[in-house]
Amino acid sequence: MSREIVLCRSLMTIERMDQNMFAPCILLVDNDVNLLVKLESVLSQAGYRVLTAHEGRQAIYLAQAANPEVIVCNAKMPSLKESDVKGTLARDSQTASIPFILLTKPFDNHDLVARVNAVIRSQAIH
Fold first, then answer.
1. 101-122 in b/e burial notation, b at 16+ Cβ within 10 A?
2. Going by DSSP bridges, is the β-strand pair 70-74/25-29 parallel, antiparallel, or unpaired?
3. How confident is the model over 84-111, as pLDDT tens digits?
4. Per-domain residue ranges for the chain?
5. Please, what sign has the CA dihedral across residues 75, 28, 83, 95?
6. pLDDT tens by residue, 11-67
7. Which are the contacts of 70, defined by CB distance < 8 A and separation ≥ 6?
8. Which of 12, 66, 78, 122 reaches 20 to 30 Å from 53, CA-CA?
9. Cα–Cα distance between 86 and 105 in angstroms, integer?
10. Cα(36)–Cα(54) distance, rounded to whole angstroms?
């Protein structure tokens, strides 16, 4: 992906963040940019503030910077070892308690929103 596209997507994400500033934040991690765009739209329409990362270092940086309520990660992403990202975040006291939802394909968008909603609700109880 070119730097211009990444910069444009980042600026669009920041603009959306302003619109949903107080909504719970979800970090999506997948190397498939088309899927990221689709899932970002689905979760934004469900009322969430959504950040996206297409590789591990970016996911770690965004998780540490934004402290999202949930991280949704493709369990079979070839360019990302989910265990490396999860392990790195688990060793950081700031991010250790962020829940992970691991996606296996195929999955239903409604099921994803329901899972995210359930995790957000369970965090509100604790």
1. bebeeeeeeeebbeebeebeee
2. parallel
3. 888 889 999 999 999 999 888 788 999 9
4. 3-125
5. negative
6. 555 555 555 678 999 999 988 899 999 999 999 999 999 999 988 889 999 999 999
7. 24, 26, 27, 98, 99, 100, 101, 116, 119, 120
8. 122
9. 19
10. 8
Report field, pTM of the whole predicted structure over 0.90 = no
CA distance 103 to 99: 13
Fold of 3-125: Rossmann fold (3.40.50)
Q: Taking the CB of residue 51, how many other CB atoms lie within 10 A of it?
A: 24
Question: For 24, which DSSP code?
Answer: P
**CB 68, CB 97: distance < 8 Å:** no
Contact between 50 and 43 under an 8 Å Cβ cutoff? The reply is: yes
